[in-house]
Each structure stands twice: as structure tokens, then as C-alpha cells.
Design brief:
The chain has 8 helices and no strands. By secondary structure, the protein is an all-alpha fold.
Amino acid sequence: MSAPIVLLIILFALMTLIGGKRGVKSFFTLLFNFVTFLILIIFIYFGVDPIKVTIAGCIIITCITLFYINGVNKKTVSSLISVLIVVLLTVLITYNMGTEARIQGFGYEQMETVAYLSIYVHLNFAKILVCQILIGLLGAIIDVSISISSSMNEVYKNDPSITKNNLLKSGINIGKDILGTMTNTLIFAFIGGFMAFIIYFTELHTPLADIMNRKVFCSEVFQILCSGIGIILIIPVTAIIMAVILMRKQSDSEKEKTADEIR
């Protein structure tokens, strides 16, 4: 039995043991999302626009992650809308910058890896770079968004008379607490992937200024910064949308009470 299969079994066992039914759902969500990702790659291979495919994939993955585990409710709907808005904003912010920075494609350090491959591939690597950023960012913004919306929902339940401004402030404050840890999570994830190149450059005694101008280094830094921007954006977007949804529910309830009193 191969090592990945063994690790998959261990992961399933631990998620079932610790998480119970929700852990089992989370495991199958992971598998569904992986299959979705493979389907995205197939569509890109057949020439469909990578950014359009990735945005569609982000919506599908978000729906699976939110609705399959937590059901369809105001928290998950708010998170879905927020994630979609931030994904679109990230595309608008990063596409032109990534193209102008010319960090798409492969660096000199990767030439040996791709030397035996055909260079006649019809792919827009500037768009592929944006797709990498969106996929790398997606899990983090879903996590932040559902954490904020769930917390705001609990605040509203405990104090239904809370004003919209105070509810919004609560959401922003919750997001601030999450921001630091989630940004670190993204940074260390990218650094972990870049560690082999850091060791490679160190062994070659490459000057720091030279490393900082390498395409492979700039690409990693660009992805880290863009992902950080996405995490920052998800906080106010989720807080605003959740506050609007909860306050709309409150105003609807007040209208029903007024109508009952009139009757």
C-alpha cells in the first residue's frame, strides 16, 4: 500500500474519531473539492479561459465547503456572497499587476525541470498566475468569512436589539483577531513551498539582492501579498453583508409585529 493511501486512511480515521459526523463530512468535502480541482485543470487543458474556469471552480468549492457541512442558512449564504465578491476583487487587483511584473511562467532555476517538455503550449501564464493566487487564497477566505458570520450571528442571537453599527463593529473586531493568525498561515504555507529554493540559493552562495530579483522569488512574494490583501478584504465585506442580512431579518420581524398589533 502506497504512503499517500496510508496517510489518507489515517486522516479519515482521525477526522472521524475527533470530528464525528461533521468530521466525516469534512473528509468527503476535501475529496469533492480535490475532484473539482482536477476538473478545472481538464477544462483549462481543453482551452477554456483559465480565470473564468477558476472563478466557477471557486464558487463550486465554496458551495460544497459551506453548504454540505453547515447547511443552507444566513451564515453560509453571507459567506458565499462575501467570498465571491473578494475573489472578483482579487482578480481585478492582481491581473494587471501580475502581467506588468512579468513574474508568470518559469524561472531559470526551473529550466532543468521543464527542459524536456514542449514549449509550444497555448497557455496564458499571466492568467495561470492569477488562478494560482485564487486557489491558494480560497481556503483562507472561506475560513475567515464563516468564522466572522457565525460569530456575528451569535452576537445577534444574544442581543437581538443590537444596532446595525454595533453589530458591524463587532464583526470588524472579530475579523481583526483572526487577521494576524490567518495571514501567518498563508505566509508560512508559501514559504514552506519555497524552502527548497532558499536552500538551493544558500548552497550556491547567491547574493541576497540577486535572490530578491529572481522570478521564482518575486512570484512567491507577489502571491503572499495578494493573498494578504484578499484576507483583509474579506473581513469588512463579510461584516457588512452579514449585518445587512441580520438587520433585514430584524426589520421584517418588526413589520410583522406591527401588522399583528394593527389587526
